[in-house]
Write a structure and sequence with these properties.
extended, 115 residues, mainly alpha, two-stranded antiparallel sheet, 4 helices
């Protein structure tokens, strides 16, 4: 992607990393190494080519029936961008206060290891 300045390049890099995150997580959930899958996907830019997490194979995702409907993907990206924009422009946030949990009780003498 061609950019006019460093700010635009930074924005493009942020979006690229954000787009990789779901692929990495799907790969991790399927028991594969996310960074290896993303690396192989970067090597080939053919439209529709990708990784099928169910079969652990690379190939034509349209032919395999894996591709999500465009509306679902577009909506997810729009929602993510909206939340990211909100967080960037917000001066304060409200979050739950972390609860302090009591320390675990000490082990009794011998800890069941009496012989």
């Amino acid at each position: 992607v061609q950019t006019d300045n460093a700010d635009q390049r930074t924005g493009v890099d942020i979006v690229r990393r954000a787009i990789e995150t779901p692929v990495r997580q799907i790969a991790e959930n399927a028991g594969a190494e996310g960074s290896i899958i993303v690396g192989k996907l970067r090597e080939k830019s053919e439209f529709g080519w990708g990784w099928n997490a169910q079969t652990n194979e690379f190939g034509d995702l349209f032919g395999q029936g894996v591709i999500d409907p465009a509306k679902v993907v577009r909506t997810a990206l729009q929602d993510a961008a909206s939340v990211a924009g909100l967080l960037v422009t917000t001066e304060a946030m409200v979050a739950e206060k972390p609860k302090k949990e009591a320390a675990a009780p000490a082990m009794p003498a011998g800890a069941g290891m009496d012989f």
